[in-house]
Amino acid sequence: MAGTAPERIVIENCAVATVDAHDTEYAAGHVVVAGNVIESVGAGAAPEGLANVVRRVDGTGHLATPGLVNTHHHFYQWITRGLAQDSNLFNWLVALYPTWARIDEEMVYAAAQGSLAMMARGGVTTAMDHHYVFPRGTGDLLGAEIRAARETGVRFTAARGSMDRGASDGGLPPDFAVETLDGILEATEAAIDTHHDASFGSMLHIAVAPCSPFSVSTELMREGAKLARRKGVRLHTHGSETVEEEKFCHELFGMGPTDYFESTGWLGDDVWMAHCVHMNDSDIAAFARTGTGVAHCPSSNARLAAGIARVPDMLAAGVPVGLGVDGTASNESGELHTELRNALLINRLGGHRENALNARQALRLGTFGGAQVLGRTAEIGSLEAGKLADLVLWKLDGIGHASIADPVAALVLGAAAPITLSLVNGRAVVEDGRLTTVDEDAVARSTRAEAQRLARIAADAS
Ligand SMILES: [Zn+2]
After folding, report:
1. Residue 398: strand, helix, or coil
2. 97 C-alpha to ligand 1 centroid (Å)
3. pTM as predicted
4. pLDDT in tens, 115-150
5. Which fold has domain 68-373?
6. What is the CA radius of gyration of the chain?
7. Could you tell me which CATH number the domain at 2-66+380-435 has?
């Protein structure tokens, strides 16, 4: 019955990098989408005689890849970019906390729109956000982000973050920027009950995400882990980002960050952690043994002079590694496709030199690796029949890329590639480089207005 058959989109004549288990690639191939799933991927033309084809795309001069998966971000920082430009992490945080503590729902909504628009127009099909600043009486901040993600049309993991260790308890944030333990646990459980959708093809997951060892009590780490496991959701936090954090953990807990995470229930295959820059061999072995994932954020780590994460060693040990933009107060570009290149380049400055990462490994970090750390490899991360139709068609026949024969090298090593089409769940979110779902110019105006409003409020309060 034609009326009930799924609508099909046929993409042909493009190079295809599937990022499947064998890194299968086709120099000239096809992808057929049926409804919200991939029906077939292969060499040459699409199968003939397909019913209900609503669109045919000639992919000549293009590369099709899985959609990019971002595994670490702080959307609200979109309206505090370009500040504390020459600080390390702790000084940068101390400079920004007082401003961040003045955000409200309108600001977070605009910032989320800006963050999501920037990522989506650069090929991100699954976004995540780690939001941990909840000033009292400022509205439904998590709900504002979820609304923005729904409007942008990307798949989304909203990590309900938190801070309860203020300066008077030996923490880094000022006391007025933190919540109470009970309030956090109650709000986090309510967010899971209200929003988390665990079904196949879900557009929205919730994760439990206390901010970091230096802003969260040990009790919140323990209780947060218990809550996440009782509810069957994932756990996320920052870990081993800087030498200052390592020193802080030794002074306060008498052990390094990884041992501290282990002691509080924070290693496991349902956990992923941002950064993991300062890890010794036994830390990496502990992550590998437990299946704990890593969100590698090369630009942010460079911006804050944090160091170079040992990604080649993590991959060799079997640690799941994805890529993250991180908040845009420490990575003003806010794009993930450029992080493929930055991950490769920055890791080659480390001990493994030219053997650190190759272009295909970088693409894998940004796609399948992201799906791994978000616990979604059955659904996304590679172009395979039966998986969700999240894919990007990169235009590689323009001046920036046409003279590079290897399309994956052109994508990863070359300039940021334009996007002809990006599908999320079978729906076009980008067409010819522009978002179809939101008005980019309107978002630019509202983010500027909200950034200026926040700056005024922060200046008046100081
Ligand atoms: Zn972060």
Report:
1. coil
2. 14
3. 0.97
4. 999 999 999 999 999 999 999 999 999 999 999 999
5. TIM Barrel (3.20.20)
6. 21
7. 2.30.40.10
